[in-house]
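Lesson 9: reading folded outputs for more than one chain in a single document. The general rule is that every protein is listed as its sequence immediately followed by its structure tokens, and records are never interleaved. Here is the first one.
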Amino acid sequence: MYCYDEKHPEGCYSFRRGYGAHKAIYQLANIPNISNMWCYKLDIHDYFNSISIPILLPILKEIIDDDIHLYNFFEKILIEDKAYYEEKIIEESRGIMAGTPISPFFANIYLKEIDTYFKNEKIPYARYSDDIILFANNKEDLDKYKNKLISFLKKYKLTINPKKEKEISPNESWEYLGIEYKEGNIDLSVATKDKLKGKIRRKARSIRRWMLKRQATEDKGMRVMIKVFNRKFFETGIDHELTWSRWFFPIVTVKNGFEEIDNYLQQYIRYIPTGKHNKKNYKTKYSDLKELGYRSLVNEYYKFKNSII
């Protein structure tokens, strides 16, 4: 479906060659005076499953105006609400069938009118699938843009996730697509850090239980923990294309978030031998962690930055 890329408005960054989350962040961060603007961001609730097929089909037909056979094929699979499941025929509304190869394309074009409107009005705006953010020079304009966006969503029978709707005043930090922007600096968002900390805690407790059950050595337990997160952060093989080093290093401009994660991970590596958090854990020195294979996010980040200078 890449042949229809030129029919997407510039404000849509998801699932497109030459666009993506990095470009969205770069372009937003480079808007003049962005730090002093008002900001509004939202997440569309259950977007893929909420898309109205009767509304989508005319949009799809306009996009695919050069291949009637392809359009007819898509129309057929979109309007068919029956499926064979556990030897029974079930019938339910499935939206654009999230998880199928073509669903991202449908998700992009469904809100083409919204993307086009904000682009034509030269309003700072970005959409990545169901995540939308926009900016205004003053509160009055922000309210106007916000109301316009909400009216568009109602027109397309979509609802906002109230837990992810936020209005941000000038000079406050804003978060989008896993990053935080504040006064010219790009860092890891609070949500990104919290999500990873949860994974660190769960993995450390799991390895601690495994170590006791298998009567493995303390060094073995810590080495396993280090290997798991080295792979997540730095592995560049085919199965690990979305590692932290490839995703965050090119766009983050400060070390703060990486330093926070480094400290948290070291704390839980030291937790594995004792199953507790106390001063005794620090008998395992930083040099010991390095001997076990530990790689600091901060150090690797600076190596990456120096390599591209």
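And here is the second record, again sequence then tokens.
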Amino acid sequence: MNEGKVNTALDWLRMAKEKFRSFAYGDEQKERPRVGLALAGGFARGIAHIGVIRVLQQAGIPVDCVAGTSVGALIGVAYCAGTTCEEMQTAGQTTTFADFGRWTPSWLGLATNQRMEKYLARLTAAKTFEELKTPLAISTSDINEGVTVYYTSGAIAQPLRASCAYPGMFVPIQYDGRILVDGFLTAPVPVEGTLLLGADVVIAVYLEAGSSGQPRTMAEVISRSFNIVQKHADIAWRQQADVIIEPDVHPFAWDDFSKTPELVRAGEEAAMKALPEIRAMLGGEKKDSAA
């Protein structure tokens, strides 16, 4: 789907949503906009999401729904289930690649991420979307059709594993009659997922990876290659987001969970800078469409 078609579809979705509200509520006005939080992927760098969430909570910014891609989906599940930022940060500090993946080289990937199901159980006992306290959409990519597939109901484990199945690294997930891989391929920042859940104001959190020095492993070569593609294909979600938070995660390696405190701090600092803009949006001020 080209950029023009994506924008047209999302604009139509927004207009349809507004018309539905007008029909449902008549002249009644909602007390405040419905806030959606879109969390990007980034593996260990995704720990910065915890810092963003903490600042939003401390500032009293409501979050009515969440959409997550890859590690953003994992953080999203934990948050929507009621796991505290302190609990997520503690888990992050002791996390290693072995908690998610087991090396089993095959024609479809270098590892399986089946262990993610046990890791998720450390964060929450919730097994279905219906058990979550806050509505959540998990983005995945159908590798055959080349489209985003969002999951908002039913079992969590398989959609989450699919959303985190980084191409080349992890074996794709066969689920729901589809072959699914990492959601970042088609929805690097799943703004559309929050719109599907009825968000009026979308706060997007993007984690741009650094690329200094020589790549150390095949995984880094693959990662940097996809990052280059993303830099040239991020217009649609940026146009649909109302506020974009971009923590400075460039200094951190994709798998360096030992830097959890620093990553959380990076998320906190970026969110603090965005608070005035967020408060302005919730206060009814409109963002300049030319920005």
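What the second record shows: DSSP finds ten helices and eleven strands in the chain.
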